[in-house]
Amino acid sequence: MSTTQTLNNLIENGNRYANSLTEYSRRKTITVNVGDVPMGSHYPIRVQSMTTIDTLDTIGSVEQTIRMVESGCEYVRITAPSVKEAQNLDNIRKELRVRGYSVPLVADIHFTPNAAELAARLVEKVRINPGNYADKKRFETIDYTEIGYQVELDRIRDKFLPLVNICKEYGTAMRIGTNHGSLSDRILSRYGDTPLGMVESALEFLRICEDENYFNIVLSMKASNTQVMVEAYRLLCKKLNEEGLKAYPLHLGVTEAGEGEDGRIKSAVGIGTLLEDGLGDTVRVSLTEDPEFEAPVAKALIDRYSNRKEKSTIIPNFIQHSQLITHNSFDSPINPFQYFRRSTHEVANFGGHNVPRVIADYSQIEVSEHEDLKTIGHFYLPLPDKWTMNDLGADYIYTAKNPAKYMLPMGLKEILDASVWAEQSDKVNKFPLFNIEAYQANTEKHETLNFLSISLTDLTEELIQTIKTDKRLVLVVETSNEHAMPALRRLFFELINQEITTPAVILRKYENLPESDFQLFSATDCGGLLIDGFGDGILLKLPDLSEKAELIAKSKSYNSTAFGILQAARTRMSKTEYISCPSCGRTLFDLQETTALIRKRTEHLKGVKIGIMGCIVNGPGEMADADYGYVGVGKDKIALYRGQNVVKKSVHADNAVNELIEIIKEDGVWFEPANI
Ligand code: SF4
């Protein structure tokens, strides 16, 4: 084999999951026909969501569907837990047509092949969950022989074939939608609770479809854990390539993302990271809110790429494969299918094993009153005359040319532009930020911590050598490239290639963006890097504004967004995590009201994960990651979980939150909220 062939093989069989890591290039897929709204190939990335009304409530479902369509949904999914609901999809569809709405409907199926087979004759698409289509959960670990495993696959084929044949006959599309939380015992026994298990779960069903020449299929790999979710989608693309299966369109989603700011940030971290690499043909954002609030979020995420230039100015990757050196747009020095944090040495409290730090931008704000720091989590208490901070207390403020007018609290440190820092009387408790020129000049440096602002093109041989030898340095990495996440990722690749272990803070600045887009875009850009293990801190710069009051107000949301991104990427837990389902026709209690109540009582329990699930059918599986669970088991009846174990089987809803808190107290995890 020639050198070129070997090299091509390394690239082809390596970690390829997208067309390019340095140019925006949407993954080419086959077209899937869903009613008269096709998906994939050259069609726009579609928006979809799911109703929350009881499917047997025809008019309620129709009216909610219409509200969803008006808010931007191009497909609407409706749960069909049994044949009764599947049958009623026909009435819903007919009433929608009477009212002039031709939106394709998708039947959501769990456990009930007979409901799927009926729905496939009535609506444009069915979604099946490969974890429970042919399997009931028994939480057993089974040691399969090859023959035993094949017998299982044959059993699945027998159960699944009728649906495939109906879909073929009626031109119905299908989503094979894996959920991390509901993998079958068979998959868990063989592959564990892993992205590979998620991918195999779908492929077992997909191979049957291909054998039958049925290709009208969309795939999804949803999880509440954004790292797992991103890894599973990437691995799916790689496996489809490797096995010579067709390039099926991808439905992107983060399950149980939650509500409000947290839900939006978490969705953007998971979905946005994949969209950046050109993956994804339809998006569903799952929020614990009315479904008409989901489509605008999905649309904002998608629209960011409608004018993204295919060609970019990012330098192709430089990789050395033993004797071979290649410059190409795909290869990377990291494993994109498994989370590893980039290895860095510790500088002050950056890098090493430290959590990523939050730096608040006060470059336009004069820090003259104690109140000025309240919005970034630092509170001055006049009576005891001391400072305190909450869980979202920023670690540093960047004051640029405006040194703070008073001594900052212990937990907050100040970064100044190097020229201003040099003039300070107290140079020990403040830290300088250098540009390259000042850094390379023989100027005074701090004894323990200095910051250097760089972008990819700054990395000359001379600078690389200086950075490598300076153990008091933290980099602040930035880019002006519109394709910002890949541009910064490329910089991190270069740091790895050059064996630079200096910690690096991600800096992003957005001008003229509505607050909602700022949240989504910063979560995509920073979250995508954090998911790949890059970033030892975040600095979100405020837009240029003239009024101090406006800037202070913004600093609150920017600080909260920065902490939210770190939490959503699972790199720093600073809040209670709520894994709450978006609700659907199966929901047994008012999810929004209950989530708000649980949040109010428990939001001071930093790092504790609480699952709030509307039904017992999917709930326990979907909240597999949670420390405690609140799950609907009947009308106003709640089961309470500690991890995966039921602690109370049926508590009346009126008292269930109190009982949940009692369980948390029994574990010694509870403490009373601070009064600040
Ligand atoms: S967990 Fe929530 S969204 Fe999932 S099926 Fe149950 S009620 Fe519906």
Structure description:
This protein is α/β, with parallel strands linked by helices and 676 residues long. Helices cover 36% and strands 19% of the residues. The strands form 6 sheets. It has an 8-stranded parallel β-sheet with strand order 8-7-6-5-4-3-10-9. An 8-stranded parallel beta barrel has the order 13-16-17-18-19-20-21-22. Strand 11 (317-321) and strand 12 form a beta hairpin. Helix 7 runs parallel beside helix 8. Mean pLDDT is 92; it is low at 1-13 and 319-327. Iron/sulfur cluster binds at residues 581-584, 586-587, 613-615, 617-619, 622.
Task: Please sum up the structure shown.
InterPro entries: Dihydropteroate_synth-like_sf, IspG_atypical, IspG_bac-typ, IspG_C, IspG_TIM, NO2/SO3_Rdtase_4Fe4S_sf. One of its GO terms (molecular function) is 4-hydroxy-3-methylbut-2-en-1-yl diphosphate synthase activity (ferredoxin). With 676 residues, this protein is of the alpha/beta class.
Task: Please describe the topology of this protein.
Blueprint: H1 3-12, E1 31-32, E2 39-40, E3 46-50, H2 58-70, E4 75-79, H3 83-98, E5 105-109, H4 113-122, E6 125-128, H5 146-170, E7 173-179, H6 185-191, H7 195-211, E8 217-222, H8 226-243, E9 251-252, H9 260-276, E10 282-283, H10 294-303, E11 317-321, E12 324-328, E13 357-361, E14 378-381, E15 386-389, E16 396-400, E17 413-417, H11 418-421, E18 430-434, H12 436-440, E19 450-454, H13 461-469, E20 473-477, H14 484-497, E21 504-509, H15 515-531, E22 537-541, H16 548-568, E23 577-580, H17 591-602, E24 609-613, H18 619-622, E25 628-634, E26 637-642, E27 645-652, H19 653-666
Parallel strand pairs: 3-4, 3-10, 4-5, 5-6, 6-7, 7-8, 9-10, 13-16, 13-22, 16-17, 17-18, 18-19, 19-20, 20-21, 21-22, 23-24, 24-25
Antiparallel strand pairs: 1-2, 11-12, 14-15, 25-26, 26-27
Helix pairs in contact: 2-3, 3-4, 4-5, 5-7, 6-7, 7-8, 8-9, 9-15, 9-16, 14-15, 15-16
The structure holds iron/sulfur cluster.
Iron/sulfur cluster (SF4) binds next to helix 18.
